[in-house]
Amino acid sequence: QRILRLAEMCRRLETEEEKVLPFYPSSLAEWEQQNARRALEQTPSEPLALALQDYVGLERFWKRFNKAKLEEKALEKARAGLANRNKKLRGLLQQYLTGTTINQKV
């Protein structure tokens, strides 16, 4: 139920481009895509592969979920970098202000 609720929330938050073009561009080469298509056309013989066919509908959800997690991690990394930069700039400002108060006393 939680996954279905998250899928509904994702659907509401989709951009127009994602609604029109629900597929993400592939990073595979053409020959790799052809090999993948051939592998998908074969009927699976293993029990796990047969069970996974029941969950093909969630593939789109997991792609979006993974994309959101990657973006979240990238934002966390960027935020940490900005926090470090802010700390350095505050230190430099403090040094500057300390220097100006000493010069005024002289």
Structural key phrases:
106 residues; mainly alpha; 5 helices; 0% strand
Tally the helices: what do you get? 5
- Supply the helix-strand structural class: mainly alpha
Number of domains: 1
Task: Name the helix and strand elements from N-terminus to C-terminus, one letter apiece.
Answer: HHHHH
Q: What about the largest sheet?
A: none
How much of the sequence is in beta strands? Answer: under 5%
Mean pLDDT: 81
Radius of gyration: 26 Å
The percentage helix is over 70%
- End-to-end Cα distance, whole Å, is 72 Å
Protein name: DRC2 protein
Brief account:
This is DRC2 protein. By secondary structure, this protein is mostly helical.
Notes on the structure:
This protein has 106 residues and is mostly helical. The chain is built from five helices and no strands. It has one domain. The chain has helices at 2-13, 16-20, 30-41, 47-52, 59-105. The radius of gyration is 26 Å and the shape is elongated. The model has no long low-confidence stretch (mean pLDDT 81).
